[in-house]
Amino acid sequence: MSSIIDGIVKGVAGLMPQDDPDVKIFNAQSELKDFSKKEETIYARLGKQVYETDGGESYPEIKAELDLLAANRQAAEGRLKAAREEKAAREHAEAEEAARSCPNCGAYNPEGTNFCQECGSRLAQPMQQAPAAKRFCPNCGTEIAAGQRFCSGCGAKIE
């Protein structure tokens, strides 16, 4: 984020008169900051090479920090994976819930329903059969759940 802001400020500074002392100070500070970033990058590469050469044995305190960092990173990756799986499961459940809703009246319909139990409209996709029902449709013999006003198999109104 700060690199974006730095880029914007550098762009604005480029529009200002270059003989202004404040602009000169800003430009010099920006140049020093860029050199410091490059220096940190080179030191990081050097440190990584030294670490890879002897496995960190020359610097046990740094090795301990890196080991702890690696463990924390692995734990964070696990939390990220779990959060992504939770999100996917939630989205799947929401999609299933939406698929059971009647496109005409919005009523929720259980699995196995071909016609809406509230308004009798044909549902977009037939759903898997619901396991428990208490009554049977006199027209087609489909099991009817308690409180269901229309047959989920043929759409007949249940008296």
Automatic annotation (TrEMBL):
Residues in coiled coil: 66-93
Top-level taxon of origin: Bacteria
Residue ranges annotated for the DZANK-type domain, each copy included: 102-155
Protein name: Zinc ribbon domain-containing protein
Keywords recorded for this protein, A-Z: Coiled coil
Entry keyword Coiled coil: yes
InterPro entries: DZR (IPR025874)
Pfam families, per database record: DZR
